[in-house]
Amino acid sequence: MRAVDIIQKKRDGIPLNEAEINTLIQNFVRNLIPDYQMSAFLMACYFKPLSFQETVHLTKAMMQSGKILHLSFLPVPTVDKHSTGGVGDKLSLTLVPIVASYNIAVPMISGRALAHTGGTLDKLEAIPGFQVNLSLSQFKNFLKKSHMAMMGQTPEIAPADKKLYALRDVTATVPTLALICASIMSKKLAEGSESLVFDVKFGSGAFMKNLKEACELARWLVQIAKAFNRKSVALVTNMNEPVGSMVGNSLEIIESIEILKGRGPKDLIYLTLHLAAHMLLLTGRAQTKAEGIALAKEAIESGKALTKFKTLVQQQGGNPHIIDTYSLLPKARFQKEFQAPQNGYLCQINTETIGMAACLLGAGRETMEDSIDPAVGFQFHKKVGSPLQKGDSILTIYYNNEKKLSEVWKLLKMAFTIKSSKPKKMSIIAKIIE
């Protein structure tokens, strides 16, 4: 099969079979197909979208382009959570220790911040000494000993995804449903979990801006999981404001620990409990969602989850004393209050703009080569619906570079909408797709 013939078929909207897709992906990974031909294929997929069955074939080919973890050596059920990304989304940090405290293995391969969205790996690396670059053997050993491990994607796991994403990023083919699904699922399936919980974000701070698009993505993810005999559920959640109060790597570590201590913002507590409940449900540790929520609460209230988090930090080389002494974490030199310019209600937050402002401070990156400042970020004092008096602090800016502050200030002035009437509060979980 020649690459040009496969590209032509897709260009003309003719469905590709499993052998054709597999040949294309395997040869691309082996550098037998040049970037310009694969770019042509990606553009053909953009204009003639892959069917569900073609997407399953693509997912399988990408998954099989590298090593597949087999976790059958673990005598406990396995489950992972995947988020489509957002601002202030530190839920992996709270979920892993809660779920792992119930004799469930949580193998989590996470990503880094890019553009306005945060990255779990960058948050973990704010902990002094914490190592996210694990070998597959280390990853398996940690899962065996503590039932949890958090690391970055290794070159062995779905290498086709890394090569394809690099091309999608520069050929304007990122927003393609089938390619998004294949990218997510090839990594998650190669990771070896029996069950998957998806947190699909929608809104101003999400990749999917509206609920309809997010629900479609959620349905495809769940259906692909089913095609590979994995149990799954997708929660479609609101990203029209940051999750919790903190945005920034070191700040989000503190907020996650606060949740595990039984404190913290209501929206973050709510999402943590509900996502944990679904992870417990899929693994059979809970029989109902209410029981799952109760078990998640018990893990926090008893201190089991906090103890598990300490184990996670220690096993991966981090300083466990940060749990009780937050001053051991990176701290910004300066802080400044961003105040309400008028009376009224906080009606809207452009969360993507908040993410871009955090990125400009140094909390995120525009390219994967950019360095991260773990100390900088924002602490929100008001959420959507909050009443405001002129001069009230909406958020505190934590920063290290005075030169960047003026540009960040301009973005913040555009990020908030204040009106005289109180807005209708949207639910945090808009839909559950099973």
Rg for CA atoms: 22 Å
Instruction: Please give the largest β-sheet.
Output: 4 strands, mixed
Arithmetic mean of pLDDT: 95
Question: For this entry, what is the oligomeric state of its chains?
Answer: single chain
Question: In the CATH scheme, what's the topology name of the largest domain?
Answer: Pyrimidine Nucleoside Phosphorylase, Chain A, domain 2
What secondary-structure arrangement, pairings included, does this model have?
Layout: H1 3-11, H2 18-29, H3 35-47, H4 52-63, E1 79-83, H5 91-100, E2 106-110, H6 120-124, H7 136-146, E3 148-152, H8 159-170, H9 177-191, E4 195-202, H10 211-227, E5 231-238, E6 246-247, H11 249-260, H12 266-282, H13 289-301, H14 304-315, E7 334-339, E8 344-349, H15 351-361, E9 377-380, E10 387-388, E11 393-399, H16 402-415, E12 416-419, E13 429-433
Parallel strand pairs: 1-4, 2-3, 4-5
Antiparallel strand pairs: 5-13, 6-9, 7-11, 8-10, 8-12, 9-11
